[in-house]
Design brief:
This protein has 274 residues and is mainly α. The chain has one domain. Helices cover 76% and strands 0% of the residues. The chain contains twelve helices and no strands. The longest helix has 36 residues. The two termini are 29 Å apart.
């Protein structure tokens, strides 16, 4: 029962941090330092990725009509635009997909620790503040998702590669990159959500395959833990996405930058002291 409560907490953390630019994997790694699941290290590594499926399903549900090229409510032009959107999403996913397959295990072994997470939280927190201050002087040139070109999508995908390092934040890296090349905050956030669908489905599938290939199996309790984590992450994600999209209509991302810096410093201080 205690492990179920811990999984609920992890699901809440995932649901909030997957969409806010503050690093979901980084937070899950940090939470694991204080809230230990009664499971093997291999299962916990896999859980931290697969629990993101619940969060991804929230995007699918909330944006189902916008992402569905076969929706009856769409005319032929709108259906064509939806197919083009998916093509751009695929193009943007290519850099992270290729490098993720090549370096996933190496990244896992060398970067999944509190020092790296803390440093990345601080570095990208500073970058958010700097970029937003710079962005005040500029007018976005891309104010609709349909205006994103294939070249722009590929550049955003290049920034997504940075998120392979835990603590960076996938949404944070892609939003920063998008802002730098003239994409509005709202469109940057929305396109980031769409990018998450193939990326996180792929990452979750890869983790599951590796877990099973290394001899991992699922006890009944572990299946329950995965399901509970995904369900909680789904419902919390729905709220988090609605909050973020409402928030950035009137505000910038600097508050998340300050949060990242404070959290990173607190974590470093805690582990150096204790």
């Amino acid at each position: 029962m205690l492990d179920i409560l811990k999984v609920i907490l992890l699901g809440i953390v995932e649901g909030i941090t997957e969409w806010l630019p503050i690093s979901s994997t980084g937070h899950l790694i940090l939470v694991d330092e204080f809230v230990k699941l009664g499971a093997s290290d291999a299962f916990k590594e896999m859980f931290n990725v697969v629990v993101q499926l619940g969060a991804i399903l929230a995007v699918v549900v909330l944006y189902f009509n916008k992402l569905n090229p076969f929706a009856r409510s769409k005319n032929s032009r709108q259906k064509k635009q939806t197919i083009q959107l998916w093509m751009k999403v695929i193009v943007a996913c290519l850099p992270a997909a290729v490098l993720g397959l090549l370096f996933d295990d190496w990244m896992e072994a060398h970067f999944h620790n509190y020092v790296v997470v803390s440093i990345m939280l601080i570095v990208y927190g500073i970058l958010f503040i700097v970029v937003e201050n710079w962005n005040k002087k500029n007018t976005p040139t891309v104010t609709k998702v349909s205006q994103i070109s294939y070249q722009t999508a590929l550049i955003i995908g290049g920034f997504q590669v940075l998120s392979l390092i835990p603590g960076t934040s996938r949404s944070g890296a892609t939003i920063l990159g998008a802002l730098l090349i003239g994409v509005s905050r709202y469109v940057a956030a929305e396109f980031t959500f769409f990018l998450a669908i193939p990326v996180m489905f792929g990452a979750s599938g890869l983790k599951l395959l590796k877990f099973v290939a290394k001899g991992g199996g699922f006890a009944t309790m572990e299946v329950v833990m995965l399901l509970v984590g995904c369900i909680v992450a789904f419902f919390v994600s729905v709220l988090a996405i609605k909050f973020l999209m409402g928030y950035i209509k009137k505000n910038d991302f600097k508050v998340f930058g300050y949060y990242r810096i404070v959290l990173g410093l607190l974590v470093l201080a805690y582990f150096f002291v204790f």
